[in-house]
Amino acid sequence: MNRLFVAYKKVEMSSNAFLSSLKKRYKVKKAGYSGTLDPFAQGVLIIAFGQFTKLFRFLKKSPKIYRATFWFGVHSLSFDNKNIQSVVKLPIFDLDKLEKIKEELLGEITFTPPQFSAKRIQGKRAYEFAKKGEIISLKKCKMQIFYCKILHYMHPFLSLELCVSEGAYIRSYCEIFAQKLGIDATLSALERVQEGNFSYEDEKDLNVLEYLDLKENFLKDVSKLENGDKIELEELEFQEEGSYYIQNKNFFCIIDIKDNKVKYILNKVKKC
């Protein structure tokens, strides 16, 4: 069964465990998801069944929208509501000061991923070292903050909505925000509400072709798609280099044009 849809993961459940529950409920063997959510976080996961599991890299999944609640005065090794080392009572901050910091952090930010993250180093996830108390060196990364809205401030909790680039770490954003205030802070809640145009709508089936980050190309003889026959450049309407999808009534394929040659990336993917 080929299928693409958006599911909603609850807190205190790993993304892998959530996927296993979906496979059991829908009685499918081949399934995958895009964009791991920590057990601490809740929100949207893009789910694919069957051949559609090969399409994640072609989906437009950015920008991403999160809703996060910062807990001021708390020092946590993992920048969430676990591994808390200390809690300090702080005076209430002026809302104008918080708005100013929010504006200062728009655009590109350079950050170091948290030790408790899924970044790979030496063949392992960073959090595997962090759980053992081992401090490792992580390379600096960049993220884009497209917009940020303050939703609510009830001291010591500040709730924000953030629109960010793929690869962004809201934990690191929280750390930078807190540094500008000269305090410790952690996340008390995190929800992903959207990835690109993907949002939760009761797990309804999605037309995968509408979500591909690819331009459609057109082949003179679409029957070639049925057998995966070789495609010549002159048979295509668009001949510029790049990746495209082509479809007929029952199937679609993804091709790449480079050096005046056409190559299948994915062939004969059955429409759902």
Automatic annotation (TrEMBL):
Keywords: Isomerase, Membrane, Transmembrane, Transmembrane helix, tRNA processing
Annotated ranges, domain Pseudouridine synthase II N-terminal: 23-170
The reaction(s) this protein catalyses: uridine(55) in tRNA = pseudouridine(55) in tRNA
GO function terms (MF aspect): RNA binding; tRNA pseudouridine(55) synthase activity
InterPro entries: PsdUridine_synth_cat_dom_sf (IPR020103), PsdUridine_synth_N (IPR002501), tRNA_psdUridine_synth_TruB (IPR014780)
SUPFAM superfamilies linked to this entry: Pseudouridine synthase
Annotated transmembrane regions: 40-59
Keyword Isomerase attributed: yes
EC class name: isomerase
Enzyme Commission code(s) on record: 5.4.99.25
GO biological process annotation, one example: mRNA pseudouridine synthesis
Pfam families named among the record's database cross-references: TruB_N
Keyword Transmembrane carried by entry: yes
Family the entry assigns: Belongs to the pseudouridine synthase TruB family. Type 1 subfamily.
Protein name per UniProt: tRNA pseudouridine(55) synthase
Organism, as annotated: Campylobacter cuniculorum DSM 23162 = LMG 24588
Gene from which the chain derives: truB
